[in-house]
Amino acid sequence: MSSLETKITGATGRAEHPRWQEFLFTTRRFLSNPLSVIGLTLIVFFGIIAILAPVIEPPKYPDHYRIPHTGFRIEPTPPSAAHPLGTTQQQYDMLYGLVWGTRSAFMIGVLVVAANLLIGVLLGAIAGYFGGTVDEIIMRITDIFYAIPFLIMAMALVVAIGRGLKAVVIVLIILEWPSYTRVLRSDILVTRGRDFILAARASGASHMRIIFTHILPNAMYSVLILASLNIGTTILTAAALSFLGLGSETGTADWGQIVSLCRNWIVGAPGNRFAYWYTVFIPGFVISLFVLGWNLLGDAVRDVFDPKMRRR
Amino acid sequence: MHALTLVETGDLKASFYTFEGVVQALNGVGIVLNQGETYGLVGESGCGKSVTVRSLMRIIQAPGRIDSGRIVLFLNRDDRTHGIDIVHRSEAYMQSIRGSDISMIFQEPAAALNPVLTIDYQVGESFRFHRMEQMLDETLIDLDAARGARRRFSPARFAQSISAALLRRERDGLGRYAERVQVIDNELYLLEEKQDGQSEGRKGELNARRDRARSKDAFVSLARHFPFLRRYRRKLDATIHRHVVELLTMLGIPNPENVAERYPHELSGGMQQRIVIAIALACHPTLLVADEPTSNLDVTIQAQIVELIKTLKKTFISSVLFITHDLGLVAEMCDRVTVMYAGDVSETATVKELFRNPLHPYTTGLLASVPKEVQDEELAMIPGAVPNLIAPPPGCRFHPRCPHRMTICSLEKPVTIEHSPGHWVACHLYTEKDAPHV
Amino acid sequence: MSDNLVDVRELKKYYPITGGVFRRHLADVRAVDGVDLAVRRGECLGLVGESGCGKTTLGKTLLRLHDVTSGRVYFDQDPAAVEEVEALLRSADARQRARARPLLKKIDLTRMGARDLLALRQKIQIVFQDPTNSLDPRMLVKDIVAEPLTAQHLIGPKEVRDRVLELLGIVGLTADHLMRYPHEFSGGQRQRIAIARALATGPEFVLMDEPTSALDVSVQAQILNLLKRLQAEFKLTYLFVTHHLLVVKYISNRIAVMYLGKINEIGPTAEIFASPRHPYTRALLSAIPVPDPETKREKIILSGDVPNPVSPPTGCRFHPRCQYAKEVCRNIEPVLERVDGGERMVACHRWREI
Questions:
Q1: Which end of chain C has fewer CB atoms surrounding its CB within 10 Å, N or C?
Q2: Helical segments of chain A, H only
Q3: What is the mean pLDDT of each run of 10 residues along chain C (354 residues)?
Q4: What DSSP designation does A66 have?
């Protein structure tokens, strides 16, 4: 009935749809906060670098993530014309490493958080909604995972799977998924008792329908905020793992790996302590900026999605 | 009809400056409460009755503010004709009258009580804050008597002497403090001795609890802060406990000793509301404000509480301001009543007059839409809904829903006139010459 | 077609309290403790009581939103079949009782299989107390009202749209209201949306769980009149749960008074209000504040508070607060007896004397 549709969507069509209005409203609120704009700018900046990595620094090897090195000298060299950001130990080009490292950082961050969200939502929803024995089992499994010390688990996995970014990603997923499950479960416990869920059951809705149509849209906020705040810390943890030698192998374009190469050069010879400041400072600064961007973004997401602030 | 006024508000305007806009909660509210009567304030949600009484006690929180108007209280026990406009008084002054001259009880008794403190402590807090000198005096008398009864050199007597000495020092400190507080021009001043012997007043900079309760005396301060030495206050606590139990008994609470030891969550809703009333009445206030105290309670418990308030009114409280949305309660309890709608006062009258001869169309509609015992025809309805106070209707705020609206109703706010003695109404039907007869 | 649309027998709903390290079963909160109730087709039965009496729990178990501890609920079943099963259950022979079980699975709402239950859900609906809570804040009104139809995929999308518009018209809303969120509406309008949702599948029985308690007085009148009109127009049967006695007087034909999980008195509204027999009903009715300053009513003020449903008093549950209590009231629990051969039933040992 076209006249009915016109009535529903209004003369301007899609623009009048309330979900679109809500999206615009959220975007406006998001952009009105200067900190969130800064965060967004940072992430977009890094995103552009990641996308344009082959343009900025053309790869030399078939494996794009292997950093080219001119020579094998141990001592790092300061920034010069040939190497704009200097070189690390064993003469790996810093600029190449940082630019391609952006790609691996994004990959790690997004992959880990996405996987965690998926696992957390599935298990948390099942545990929270059905309760009883299922809930108990899932909660005890999360307890077990909490009890395992992180580093030991990382080392064991590296032994099992081998070094590389793949191991880092898997370790991080195993580390974080219990938090997501618990957070979602607690939100679901609150939402489950509300009257509209009972109304949906009285209408004959199936469990799947209730979970996906009613409960999750109302209970997702905390988990989304957790996810957005977590991307930053995930990348930091990944860098730490690489720094400890549990991540990718030497010479891979991964920020943590680059920082690990400077381990021996943090303090220079007596008399010239800061001789090799660039090997530490530059990659550290880049990591900090990236994590800052995600943190600001996460804060902004939290402010926008805070149910108390969702007034019209 | 020459009753003395207790509270009088004039053209009171208050708004809430919120995220969505300015909520114009009160649009020029004027009520007159006389001493010795039970005054009812009736209206639906959003009509401003809670905001009015909170302005009375100046407990409106940000983003709310009293914009303009006057609130005159005649609380001076010596001179009842002496009124004070409290809109601009200092917070210290308001603290001194809250709880002791005006008390308030709220809708949710469980929310009004602190779940981690015993009933004894919470009811005793009123006594501690407002009647500390009296408590100290009584304790000292008790201690002297107890000491006199003991043998000369027993350790118990020694401990009691120390307690008495410390308490006496505290009492003297409070006495000295009280001397320094002067009321000049109806404002509280704390006089300080300056170097050159002259005294300077610090207006309203009293944090009453801090300055009064804490004596500048070194011994007392020391003793107060050390857990073991605090035992000197035990007798004081016992005196307060005695007063608390007395109060609970007067309120008809069975087993008051037992109840005083308990925590709020161990009591039922009706009992909790009684405790809240006890806290409110501890210092014998002149006015008790009750903000929908029985809305959350069952009908039978509500009847108990209403009976209690009626009994107390005869003996203990002199005036009650009762807010409710239930016209039945108004008919039972109140002498005079004001009907409010969306921040305006619609009508004020004695209860009999209001029910017999309602003038304002809103009052008529409200009375007709409440189910009664004998209800032969369908309930009358007032069409529409309570307006959004961020963008209220112009002129008379009721006009969109009024069956008798005229052109002028959307243009001008009606003035309150006295239609018959004691019966005030704000409606153009009674001020316009060519208005239809209703 | 039975005269009784809903027939409740010996319904019990206990909530277990567990404690200790091994979560031992300590005691039960006896929310509903043996209720027999019959709701006739086309009537409005009011269920009144104070907080803790179990009326809300009873209502929700009728929709099988809670599972019962024991008892039977027969919805629109052949009375002969019902009587047969009940007779089997009452028999002393264990084999007879065992024969009843497969029969029960077919006709007892509390034991029914999922498919039969889904079919029944189209005929029984509910309107909740708080319209803010009972509408999904993330859904548009058109989806909320269509939920009973789309949840079971009963009709196609085009028919759903038409039906939603029709329902909104019935409750007094318009097409503009379709594409909005619940928080954009006032309390009264939200309750109308909830009512529209309840009528979506054309039910026969609607449970009203305090539908006007969260609303303003003037809006309450609107909703009550709407509910009355809908009952007449669509031949609905209501179970109206509330604690507001004057409201229940206005809208119901019969009233049942509950106290601590049991029904004390049940009968036609006018009769109960005119001459209440049970002492609790008397106290309840006398406590109603009447909006008329001229009437002076003698109030019966009950002493004490409602006892804890975990350990209800022995014998008659009301005896600790009853001014007419005698020895027999302390020991033996009264059952519902018919009064003067009429419609009324009272559960009191002394109803003839007082």
A1: N
A2: 2-9, 18-32, 34-51, 53-56, 94-130, 132-147, 150-161, 165-192, 195-202, 207-209, 216-243, 255-261, 277-305
A3: 79 86 81 90 91 86 88 88 86 83 85 87 91 89 91 86 91 87 87 93 92 85 91 92 89 92 91 90 87 79 79 87 86 86 86 81
A4: B
**Average pLDDT of the segment spanning A215-239:** 86
CA distance B155 to B150: 10
Identify whether the C-beta of residue B115 lies closer than 8 Å to the C-beta of residue B263. Answer: yes
Task: Determine whether the interchain pair C126/A18 forms a contact, defined as Cβ–Cβ distance below 8 Å.
Answer: no
Separation between Cα atoms, residue A266 and residue A251, nearest integer Å:
19
Q: How many beta carbons lie within 10 A of that of residue C327, not counting itself?
A: 10
CA atoms lying within 13 Å on the CB side of residue A271: 1
Cα–Cα distance for residue pair A20/A7, rounded to 1 Å: 17
* C142 closest CA partner among C85, C88, C186, C181: C181
Give B26-63 pLDDT, tens digit per residue: 988 889 998 888 999 998 888 888 899 899 888 988 78
For residue B224 the two structure tokens come to 């107060």
Residues in chain B: 438
Per-position b or e across B203-223, b if 16+ CB within 10 A of its CB: eeebebeebbbbbebeebeeb
Give the neighbours of chain C: at least 3 Cβ pairs within 8 Å: A, B
- CB contacts < 8 A, A to C, total 80
Nearest CB among A18, A202, A218 relative to C126 is that of: A202
pTM for the complete prediction?
0.83
**Distance, CA of A297 to CA of A30 (rounded, Å):** 9
Q: How far apart are the first and last CA of chain C?
A: 40
Query: Would you call B41 exposed, middle or buried from its count of C-beta atoms within 10 A (0-12, 13-18, 19+)?
Result: buried
Q: How far is A218 from chain C (nearest CA, A)?
A: 7
**Chain B interface, Cβ < 8 Å to A:** 19-20
Strand order in B187-193's β-sheet?
B181-184, B187-193, B199-203
Q: B105 to each of A269, B245, B419, C310, how far by Cα in Å?
A: 75, 20, 33, 31
Q: β-pairing, B84-85 with B64-73? A: antiparallel
Opening angle at CA B142, ends B136 and B145, nearest 5: 140
Q: For residue A312, what is the nearest residue in chain B, using CA coordinates? A: B20
Tokens representing C75 are 């919805």
Cβ partners under 8 Å of residue C302, min gap 6: B300, B303, B304, C283, C321
Question: CA B238, CA C275: separation in Å to the nearest integer?
Answer: 52
Structure token digits, residue B221: 């301060």
Question: Is residue B208 within 8 Å of B177, Cβ to Cβ?
Answer: no
Amino acid at position B23, single letter: V
User: Would you give the DSSP letter of residue B213?
Assistant: I
Tokens of A65: 């993530």
Round to whole Å and give the CA distance between C182 and C186.
Answer: 9
Lookup: tokens for C20: 């200790």
Instruction: List, in sequence order, every residue forming a beta bridge with B124; answer none if it has no partner.
Output: none
Residue in chain C nearest A201 by alpha carbon? C65
C-beta separation of C107 from C33 below 8 A = no
- ipTM score here? 0.85
What amino acid occupies position C287? A
Give all chains having 3 or more CB-to-CB distances under 8 Å with chain A: B, C
* B370: nearest Cα among C233, C216, A80, C18: C216
- The residues near B422 (Cβ < 8 Å, ≥ 6 apart) are B1, B336, B349, B350, B353
Whole-angstrom distance, CA of residue C316 vs CA of residue C278: 12
Q: Quick one: closest CA in C to A198, which residue?
A: C65
